[in-house]
Amino acid sequence: MRKTCIIFAMLALTVFTAQAQKFGYIDSEYILKKIPAYNAAQEQLDKLSKQYQTEIEAKYKAVQELYGKYQSEKVLLTEEMRQKREAEIIAREKEAKEFQSSHFSPEGTLAKKREELLKPVQDKVYDAIKEISTEGGYAIIFDIANNPGVIYNNPRYDLSDKVLEKMGFK
Fold first, then answer.
1. Whole-structure pTM value
2. Least confident of 50-59, 74-83, 135-144, 150-159
3. At a CB cut-off of 8 Å and minimum separation 6, what does 108 contact?
4. What is the largest CA-CA distance in the chain?
């Protein structure tokens, strides 16, 4: 009877182990750097960001120059002229801030362009990961890029190259 219980326990353990979930991981940073379309989109976004930053800096510089000029002429101006200049400086500064916000806010032009350029590539990566997960029977696939919570990862379970292969990259 004791042998039967031990055999049954071993059989149950074998069945449980066979049904254990598979886990894998990817490094999305590694994958994205290997995709030319992503790199081209990133370059385009960097160029656009620099362009907007230059324009914003020029607007703030103009405000500072206007304020400097106002400060040097302030004693010569009438009260009405001072108020008019102050209003102009405030309006220009507000305009610069609105311009900056319209381009660099989470809903700004740059964020929309990022979504437009990068989302299709990210969607393709996700689809490839989903296919690999389904084909390989993986329950969970982790992304270790920028994740300080992962202490150790065995390269044997790295699926990053499989994702690139699935997408047609080597």
1. 0.73
2. 150-159
3. 101, 102
4. 110
3-state secondary structure the chain: CHHHHHHHHHHHHHHHHHCCCEEEEECHHHHHHCCHHHHHHHHHHHHHHHHHHHHHHHHHHHHHHHHHHHHHHHHHCCHHHHHHHHHHHHHHHHHHHHHHHHHHCCCCHHHHHHHHHHHHHHHHHHHHHHHHHHHHCEEEEEECCCCCCCCCCCHHHECHHHHHHHCCCC
> Is there a contact between 163 and 125 (Cβ–Cβ < 8 Å)?
yes
For 137: left if phi > 0, alpha if psi spans -120 to 50, otherwise beta; the answer is left
Confidence band of 5 (pLDDT split at 50, 70, 90): very low
Length of the chain: 170
Q: CA Rg, the chain, in Å? A: 29
Q: Which residues pair with 162 in a beta bridge?
A: none
Q: Which two tokens stand for residue 128?
A: 């490839």
State how far the Cα of 23 lies from the Cα of 29, in Å rounded to an integer. Answer: 19
Q: Which residue reads 């979504």 in tokens?
A: 115
Q: What is the dihedral of CA 4, 13, 16, 129, to 10 degrees?
A: -150
